Amino acid sequence: MVELVTAETGDRPVAVFKDQRQVLTDPASPAFGIVSTAAIGGLTLIDPAKLSPQQLQALRVATAAVTGLYTAATIGRGRVTLVPFNLVAGLAAGAATLRFAELTEALDARAIRTLHGVGVTRRRPWLAAGSAALTFAMFLLDRAAARRQEHEAVTLEDLEQLRPVTPAVRDLAEGILRAADVPGADALLAQLQQAQEIYWEEDFVTTAQFKVPDGLPRAVPHTQVFPVTARFEAENGVPLQVTLQVYNGKLDHLAIEAVDETEESADDVVDAWPEPNEVQYFIEGPGGGAAPVSREPGTLA
């Protein structure tokens, strides 16, 4: 079975067919909430003390299966180790349920006795209702969290825009990459020629985010702060530097930050990128300190 839903694409809704099996394993879907609540409530409604050994074993297996499936659907979705994390979690939960079935049945019997002691007449239905209510409450919490994450992701994506890399950003990034012979700089320069700039608003911000097409050569090390920085002073004399971040072998972002971490934030003292003739290039040394680049920029081999 499939479910017809709509999704916003551009300016118009588009029909999307969603597999019903995906709906039943989506912890934020109403179908999942109803089915899981009914399954757990229904299993609790069965009195283990009234079953034959074969029936009791079947109940234990069914309870373990429901517990494992519920856990797999709600924990660690999308996380992958050697095998999907939610699969590992589901199998572990199901095995633990079988392992401690006798303890669970003892607690079940104690709960029934407690209800009897306070004068409850329909004890098993009340216990099942309580289990179902707890399961549904957990579903509502998971659904609210999922909806909040989805809203935040969509909001950010809607605000994100692409444009050609602005000249000031391109000049600084290219100057940093050409200031000294650094492994990987040639690959990053090639990326810069095809990169776009991600922005969320028109006002100046001290970080420029790059979007680099796939398939281009990548720099090694894959993740690093490029060892060359461009230093300059703000109008109030605060020493600042422009740093270039590389992530997964690609240009990630260019940022203005204070040379001294104890100084005030760069956001408070600059309102534009520096001109290339206003900066001096420094390169990080083996001991962690930075020294001025002694060669002319633009002579990258």
The total count of helices amounts to 8
- Spans of at least 5 consecutive residues whose pLDDT stays below 50 are 1-20, 297-301
**Biggest beta sheet attributes:** 9 strands, antiparallel
Helical content (DSSP H or I, runs of 4+): 40-55%
Distance between the termini: 61 Å
- Provide the structure class: alpha+beta
Written description of the protein model:
The longest helix has 37 residues, at 123-159. The protein has helices at 20-24, 30-45, 53-74, 85-99, 101-117, 123-159, 167-178, 185-194; strands at residues 2-9, 12-19, 161-164, 196-199, 207-211, 224-225, 228-233, 239-247, 250-258, 280-284, 290-292. Helix content is 45%, strand content 21%. The chain has 301 residues and is an alpha+beta fold. It has 8 helices and 11 strands. Strand 8 (239-247) and strand 9 form a beta hairpin. Helix 2 runs antiparallel to helix 3 and helix 7 packs antiparallel against helix 8. Strands 3, 4, 5, 6, 7, 8, 9, 10 and 11 form a 9-stranded antiparallel β-sheet that branches. The protein is elongated and about 85 Å long.
